[in-house]
Amino acid sequence: MMQSLVRGGVAGAAGTTVLNAVSYADMALRGRPSSEAPARTVEKIAEDAGHPVRGADGIRDNRLSGLGALSGIAVGCGVGAAVSLLRRAGVRMPWWMGGAVTGALAMAATDLPMRRLGVTDPASWSAADWVSDAAPHLAYGLVTYGIVTAAQ
Predict the structure, then answer these.
(1) Are 41 and 68 in contact (CB under 8 A)?
(2) Do residues 137 and 107 lie in contact, with contact meaning Cβ atoms separated by under 8 Å?
(3) Of 22, 44, 133, 142, which one's alpha carbon is 20 to 30 angstroms from that of 38?
(4) 122: domain range?
(5) Could you give the CA distance from residue 144 to residue 98 in angstroms, rounded to a whole number?
(6) What DSSP assignment string belongs to 69-133?
(7) Separation of alpha carbons 94 and 47, rounded Å
């Protein structure tokens, strides 16, 4: 089981790298800003837990940005580990389907908490917003699931 967890975590880290690359390429091509949603999510969770992130405005913003990025890495590695455990338990799909499902799981793991915390409302997103969220998550899922299945 430990081998599956490590394999999935590593696969999730690789998938997260691809997700970030696709997101940054989109930002470069379209000239769009980076999302503030991860930082706002961390801010809301910290405040709700009674431990707000401290620091002068600029320092606090930098901490929140860093914590938001780290939370994305944690989600990516965690979803990879979960998918690897599911595969170990016998859940088998073709690569393309497993990749799409893995990407959807990662997208849900980020978007649902943001919605629940009131950080964003996907119902109000434009088509471009959805593509900016779905395309990197699909790339994440294909890479992550591909590595999980190749290693077994």
Answers:
(1) yes
(2) yes
(3) 142
(4) 2-34+72-150
(5) 9
(6) HHHHHHHHHHHHHHHHHHHHTT----HHHHHHHHHHHHHHHHHHHHHHTTS--GGG--HHHHHHH
(7) 42
User: Tokens for 131?
Assistant: 């593509």
**Inside any domain, residue 60:** no
CA neighbor of 79 nearest in space, from 2, 123, 137, 132: 137
Q: Within a domain: residue 46?
A: no
| Number of domain units in the chain | 1
Q: Is residue 23 part of a domain?
A: yes
57: amino acid identity, one letter: D
Q: Is 94 within a domain? A: yes
Task: Please determine, for residue 152, whether its predicted confidence score (pLDDT) is greater than 80.
Answer: no
Q: Please provide the average confidence, as pLDDT, over all residues in the chain.
A: 95
- Asked if 106 and 20 count as a contact pair (C-beta separation under 8 A), the reply is no
Structural tokens at position 146 = 């591909």
